[in-house]
Amino acid sequence: MIAAARAALPAWRDAGPAARVGLCLEILARLNARSFEIAHAVMHTTGQGFMMAFQAGGPHAQDRGLEAVAYAWEAMSGVPATARWEKPQGKNPPLVLDKTFRMVPRGVALVIGCATFPTWNGYPGLFASLATGNPVIVKPHPMAVLPLAITVETARAVLKEAGFDPNLMMLAVDTPDAPIAKELAQRPEIRIIDFTGSSEFGAWLEANARQAQVYAEKSGVNPVVIGDFADFAGLARNLAFSLSLYSGQMCTTPQNIFVPRNGIRSGERTLSFDEVAAGLAAAVDKLLGDADRAAEVLGAIQSPATLERLDTARSLGMVVRASGAAAHPRFPDATLRTPLIVAVDARDEDKYAAELFGPISFVIATDGLDQSIELMQRTAREHGAITAAVYADDPAVLRRAGDAAAEAGVALSCNLTGGVFVNQSAAFSDFHATGANPAANASLTDPAFVAGRFRVVQSRVPVPSAAAE
Amino acid sequence: MIAAARAALPAWRDAGPAARVGLCLEILARLNARSFEIAHAVMHTTGQGFMMAFQAGGPHAQDRGLEAVAYAWEAMSGVPATARWEKPQGKNPPLVLDKTFRMVPRGVALVIGCATFPTWNGYPGLFASLATGNPVIVKPHPMAVLPLAITVETARAVLKEAGFDPNLMMLAVDTPDAPIAKELAQRPEIRIIDFTGSSEFGAWLEANARQAQVYAEKSGVNPVVIGDFADFAGLARNLAFSLSLYSGQMCTTPQNIFVPRNGIRSGERTLSFDEVAAGLAAAVDKLLGDADRAAEVLGAIQSPATLERLDTARSLGMVVRASGAAAHPRFPDATLRTPLIVAVDARDEDKYAAELFGPISFVIATDGLDQSIELMQRTAREHGAITAAVYADDPAVLRRAGDAAAEAGVALSCNLTGGVFVNQSAAFSDFHATGANPAANASLTDPAFVAGRFRVVQSRVPVPSAAAE
Questions:
Q1: CA distance B454 to B238
Q2: How far is residue B10's CA from residue A109's CA, in Å, rounded to a whole number?
Q3: d(CA B133, CA B129)
Q4: Would you state the pLDDT for residue A467?
């Protein structure tokens, strides 16, 4: 497969940026036409509810792919294909050179897909590498093969129609019992790796796949800071949705909700720590009270490991809201779980500072807003975070939280009470992860995400007429 | 020093791209005003002739710094400081968010200077890091401290005048007996390292300073391919200058000159391999025949290690041109050496495939043009190369050489016979190194050189009026 990828490289490299970007756009357009098929594939492999599988797995993933192509185009088109260089030499004729600049790809790229968002997390690296001239081998998560198989099939058809070697995009499928990612990742021919998944494997890649440029989105511990805030109902409604959406199986789901142990002011009222925690639990109950809606919002649990984690997490503190099973109206065999909310103390950092992926969150009693902000910053900096949220009426508090989040390199959402949620990030408007804390070493998508995927090699020759003078 | 750098960071980060870039430009303008002082400092520390020390150490180095600042500005200004995001919601009011985007630096940057081109090779990383918000610790080569000391002094004065902490730029001087680069480079606070120097230390940095983004220019083996070429006199004159300039102590100096063992056609004549080799030797003799000119072109030998290398290299093959001492008219104690040219066979790859830094080159007998091009490509790919050159009247040969150089990731100069030399690379027009072969993992300067030096951290908040609807 690697040999086939390398054989496909020269013609793709020589086709140049415009041809490559054009074909990437065509692949995206064809994927867009298959959005419903991809949505069903994502739903049945990841357990996402259909609406989310359609949005995040279809158009939003395509948006992220398109964004990567746009950045790739910007990076490549910033270098001219040719230039005439002239240097005056006083009374003598000027020095004149014609220069040509070729974009050369790094080599064969590997995309290691994830189990929960195979297309949304896979497309940015896949399209960034392909657009910049690198053949791509896609190694899907063994539990979420079909969405990327459809993707690769679509890409191969477009490439073949345009006269290119379809082996510019290949699917390397493995099984949980016989994984191939480590072997593939260490091959000297693999020069770029895009990975979304566990911190453990991400760190392994960075340490062991040193021949490659590794773009890794790993795990994080996403904090929420709650201060004095009038619209507590809106806060609770909004956070309840964030905690419930896809049963918290998002790298953007909040985990640690910091609340002063002396409670908060909410307009005219004072809410105790227990009232804040209970209010969040009640909002989750209300959101999930309707079985149809609950099934759509929660989706199914993707991995048995998440069920085990959920089972052990309830002993970590005082259970504010117990996780329960839920029935799916159309898929009776689906495994659904509602969010678990556990109350702990700020000093129990050993319990809440590691990521507990899935519908598990903590309401954490702090000495006050200062400690909440300090813990948001420190846990994000030390353990990584992809999102952070703050609720406060006082603009000065928002500014302080903004400074702390900037120090910790984590994107901050302020006072979300309506139809925007902290776990959502929109292509062309939100950067997903920053690369500035341990949760990821790259961002979707900024110039750094594409700039290193190709190199510029120039040649220059004196202009004959000038040389003859 | 690291603590002082970190303390200086927040205000510099918060000043924003425009202020930082403005001050970088001011530093460059003041350095420009000190060009003659810097030229003397470069001459006396590196052994460069005065004209070269002035050009390469002064304005050309400043050009490379300015180029890095320009790329940094382009990368940072591509991200808006603020944006209003609006998403239609059918009959309901749109979702409206105000978003702010902050550039945050990676951390403390380290510039490890080199002995031969302290400013030219040091300024790109120094200015790229500073412009993107990172405090910079400059660790000069212990034999070339003064040029970077003047640079740091100038930068500190500008920063202080503008109300910033001058510790944004500091000089960390060591000695050959008590080097500090390894200890500094491994400090967890050091997040960016720019290095120019040996492959050995560059590889050590990449393996051991894993907490940092390492931009390393290491050594290479620069090839020249000579095919059938009418203007042999121009070829020989041009190459003789390239081999002699600063006694070959440039990372861009040609080392391996591949010539068919059956000779070449040059217009009406056939030149045997020996005649080509002798022609090159004669052109060097002619160039250096005038003692004043020879002193200016050759400069002095920077390091005793180069003298030793030169001494042993003459036994590697048949000496075509012996290296000799030369006297400097103004500096009688200067150690000058003229180029050594040794003839070897293509099969003696163990002799010519490693870099022999200094005035040492090989004329290598090949089976013909095909082997010459193959060896150019393979040695560059395996051992690294920063420059390559080809001489051929046939455009088809130039194209083949161009393809081979692109495959090997090395910049190619074609048919240089006049006033442009393969070892020269002009800011704003030539990329110096490509990052696509072992000679360097970065290029001066492309978007990849600056994009990873900062991250973008955003925050977002619903727009009050829209939220109230």
A1: 42
A2: 37
A3: 6
A4: 47
The mean pLDDT value for A368-377 works out to: 98
Position B467 scores a pLDDT of 47
Q: Which residues pair with B253 in a beta bridge?
A: none
Chain B residue numbers touching A79 (CB-CB < 8 A): 446
What sign results for the dihedral spanned by CA atoms B301, B305, B308, B310?
negative
Of the candidates A85, A207, A457, the beta carbon closest to that of B429 is on: A85
CB contact at 8 A, A424 and A120 = no
Return the residue matching tokens 């907490």: B211
Q: Which residues pair with B345 in a beta bridge?
A: B365
Here the tokens at position B400 are: 């083949």
Q: Inform me whether the C-beta atom of residue A451 falls under 8 Å from chain B C-beta atoms.
A: yes
Q: If DSSP codes are grouped into helix, strand and coil, which group holds residue A28?
A: helix
Digit-coded pLDDT (tens) for A241-292: 999 999 999 999 999 999 999 999 999 999 999 999 999 999 999 999 999 9
Question: For B314, how many CA atoms within 13 A lie in the half-sphere containing its CB?
Answer: 14
Mean pLDDT of chain B: 96
**What residues of chain A, 66 to 85, have a C-beta less than 8 Å from chain B?**
74-75, 78-79, 83, 85
DSSP for A287-326 reads HTSSHHHHHHHH-----HHHHHHHHHHGGGSEEEE---EE
pTM of the model: 0.96
Residue A465: predicted pLDDT:
62
Q: CA B23 → CA A42, B66, B107, B130, B136, distances in Å?
A: 51, 12, 19, 10, 14
Considering only CA atoms, which of A155, A165, A158 is closest in space to residue A10? A165
Model pLDDT for residues B59-93, shown as the tens digit of each residue: 999 999 999 999 999 999 999 999 999 999 899 89
Which chain A residues touch B91 with a CB distance below 8 Å? none
Q: If pLDDT is split at 50, 70 and 90, which confidence band does B375 have?
A: very high
A179 touches chain B (CB under 8 A): no
Provide the Cα torsion B122, B128, B129, B135; round to 10°. 80
- Which DSSP helix (H) or strand (E) runs through A461? strand A454-462
Cα–Cα distance, A121 to A118 (Å, whole number)? 6
- Residue of A459, A463, A465, A469 for testing the chain B interface, max B β-carbons within 10 Å: A459
Would you state the pLDDT for residue A219?
A: 87
For strand A223-226 and strand A256-260, is the pairing parallel, antiparallel, or unpaired?
Answer: parallel
CB A86 within 8 A of CB A442: no
- Would you state the pLDDT for residue B219? 87
Of A220, A132, A198, A128, nearest to A410 by C-alpha is A220
Which candidate in A412, A443, A455, A465 is best for mutational testing of the B interface (most B CBs within 10 A)? A455
Of B140, B114, B127, the C-alpha closest to B246 is: B114
Instruction: Judge whether B430 is closer than 8 Å to chain A, CB to CB.
Output: yes
Find the CB nearest A411 among B414, B417, B457: B457
Residue showing tokens 């036994």: B315
If you average pLDDT over residues B332-342, what whole number do you get?
97
Asked if residue A407 has pLDDT above 50, the reply is yes
Asked if the peptide bond before residue A445 counts as cis, ω within 30 degrees of 0, the response is yes
Strand partners, B105: B454
Confidence of residue B469 (pLDDT cuts 50, 70, 90): very low
Compute, in degrees rounded to 10, the torsion defined by CA atoms B292, B357, B196, A450: 110
Give the separation between CA B280 and CA B232, rounded to whole angstroms. 9
Q: How are the residues of chain B apportioned to helix, strand and coil, as percentages rounded to the nearest 5? A: 45, 20, 35
Q: In sequence order, what E strands does A106-230 have? A: 108-112, 136-139, 169-171, 190-196, 213-217, 223-226
Roughly how many angstroms between the first and final C-alpha of chain A, as a whole number? 53
Query: In this structure, are strands A269-271 and A264-266 parallel, antiparallel, or unpaired?
Result: antiparallel
Beta strands (DSSP E) in A338-400 are 340-345, 360-366, 387-391
